[in-house]
Design goal:
alpha/beta; Rossmann fold; five-stranded parallel beta sheet
Length: 177
């Protein structure tokens, strides 16, 4: 079984995923970090040198590999599931947890994350708030369709969220809908 954490940039997928994996005694993989490791450069560099399509192709290769992982918690980038093929890759044996937060919380987290600006490219030419609104409108229907559990991160610590995910997973133990 694979547990996939989905959500917008800044939702806490990597932090909560790492803690949930520790709590479950499972492996943890951050898909974006694996792409960076394989490419030998940051996501921003991939976007600037080779374009978003190349990044999404690398991301799909990583997801294809992770789809066969057992007892893994995987944090995927916010846009990883924009491609229907990626959704099909992960869907059959996965449980999906959608981490949510209001825009103000996401923006505060992104602004407070030094890696965000240095390593992650803007996805539009808009301000961060406008980009977030556009991204949310495009991605939330996908997240809603996939989610087995929707979990607000607002007002909860990463440890509380990881505990909730682990408790939920012990009752889930079923493939995705």
């Amino acid at each position: 079984m694979i547990l996939v954490l989905i959500g917008l940039r800044g939702a806490g997928k990597t932090t909560v995923g790492r803690l949930a994996a520790e709590r479950l005694g499972w492996s943890f993989v951050d898909a974006d970090s694996l792409v960076v490791e394989r490419a030998g450069c940051s996501i921003r560099d991939i976007f600037e040198r080779e374009g978003e399509t190349r990044f999404r192709d690398l991301e799909a290769d990583v997801l294809r590999e992770l789809a066969s992982c057992d007892r893994c918690v995987v944090a995927v980038g916010g846009g990883a599931l924009d491609r229907p093929g990626n959704r099909r890759l992960l869907g059959p044996g996965a449980c999906f947890v959608w981490l949510t937060a209001p825009d103000a919380v996401l923006l505060e987290r992104m602004e407070g994350d030094p890696a965000n600006a240095a390593h992650r490219p803007p996805l539009t030419q808009n301000t961060p708030a406008a980009e977030l609104a556009v991204t949310r409108a495009r991605r939330e229907p996908i997240f809603r369709e996939l989610a087995d559990l929707e979990l607000s991160t607002e007002g909860r610590s990463p440890h509380q969220l990881a505990e909730r995910v682990a408790e939920w997973l012990s009752s889930c133990r079923r493939p995705h809908k």
